[in-house]
Amino acid sequence: MALLDDVKRRLGVFYSDANKNAEVQGMIESATLYFKGAGWDVSTPTPLATEAIVLYCKMAQSTDPSQLINHPVLVSFIAQGRVEV
Amino acid sequence: MLKFNPTTPIKLYTKETIYEPGQGNITSWQEIDSDGYNTFYCEWRGSFGERAISAEALGIKDYATVRTFYNPIIYEKLRSVQTIIVKNADSTAFIDGQPNKNSPNVYELWGGVDNVLEANQLIEFRVRRYEGL
Q1: What pLDDT is attached to residue A70?
Q2: How many domains does chain B divide into?
Q3: What's the CA gap between B83 and B10, in Å, rounded?
Q4: Where are the alpha helices (DSSP H) in chain B?
Q5: Contacts of residue A57 in chain B, CB cutoff 8 Å?
Q6: Is position B104 within any domain?
Q7: Is the N or the C terminus of chain B less surrounded, counting Cβ atoms within 10 Å?
Q8: By the CB < 8 Å criterion, does B73 face chain A?
Q9: Which chain A residues contact residue B70 at CB under 8 A?
Q10: Cβ of B2 under 8 Å from any chain A Cβ?
């Protein structure tokens, strides 16, 4: 719940609405799986992980597919956060 | 998608009227509160040059264009009741419960409010200095 609140504020959502909460929660879950696939477990978010989730959600909000890219800052976050194997 | 940088804190007050039995209708200015938040951040773009001079010909001494995040409470209030916008969240904007006409931070809505692309993500509206007209 706390993560949902943090991400909502960073996206500029300063109101409570069940549909909006579900939308943001869905993006958070997608981000968590996306980072897991990249080798970074963000299920217990650090400030860096929260930042990465926020960036992912901001990108996911865009309705322009051409803007959905492997953002260099996102890649940098993953490089810093992922576990060395 | 529209890119903007919301860095200016604003507070919004609406003119609300309630009926008190025995006293009649009582009108007062109420601060907009959304989910426990009453200071909102926006991008505040002032007016300069030719456009400012054109506005002054209409009696508008100062106006600005404000972009901020969509919020259903703010959007509805801007569309339906008189709303005061206080730039920089100035705590001295109201004196004895009334907007301070001499404060350079007190504005009122000028024209309509646009829910940008009807996307429920951003709203944009213009404000003019509140002069109590």
Answers
A1: 83
A2: 1
A3: 12
A4: 49-57, 72-80
A5: none
A6: yes
A7: C
A8: yes
A9: 12
A10: no
Pick from A12, A16, A64: CB nearest B35 = A16
Which residue type, as a one-letter code, is found at position B34?
A: S
State the best of B35, B117, B120, B124 to mutate against chain A, taking most chain A CBs within 10 Å: B35
Contact B112, B126 (CB under 8 A): no
Size of interface A-B (CB pairs under 8 A): 28
ipTM > 0.90, yes or no:
no
| Ranges under pLDDT 50 in chain B | none
Q: Which residues of B touch A14 (CB under 8 A)?
A: 34-35, 37, 40, 69, 71
User: At how many degrees (to 10) do helices A47-61 and A2-10 cross?
Assistant: 50
Chain segment B37-50, per-residue pLDDT in tens: 999 999 999 999 99
- If one counts every other C-beta atom within 10 angstroms of the C-beta of residue A19, the result is 7
Q: Assign residue B94 the CATH number of its domain.
A: 2.40.10.270
**Cβ(B123)–Cβ(B68) below 8 Å:** yes
Q: Is B3 inside any structural domain? A: no
Residue A27: its chain B contacts at CB < 8 A?
A: none
In a domain, B1, yes or no: no
Hey, what are B67's tokens? 């972009």
Residue A18 structure tokens = 């069940």
Residue B70 is assigned to a structural domain of this protein:
yes
B70–A17 CB contact, under 8 Å: no
Per residue in B66-75, pLDDT (tens digit) is 999 999 999 9
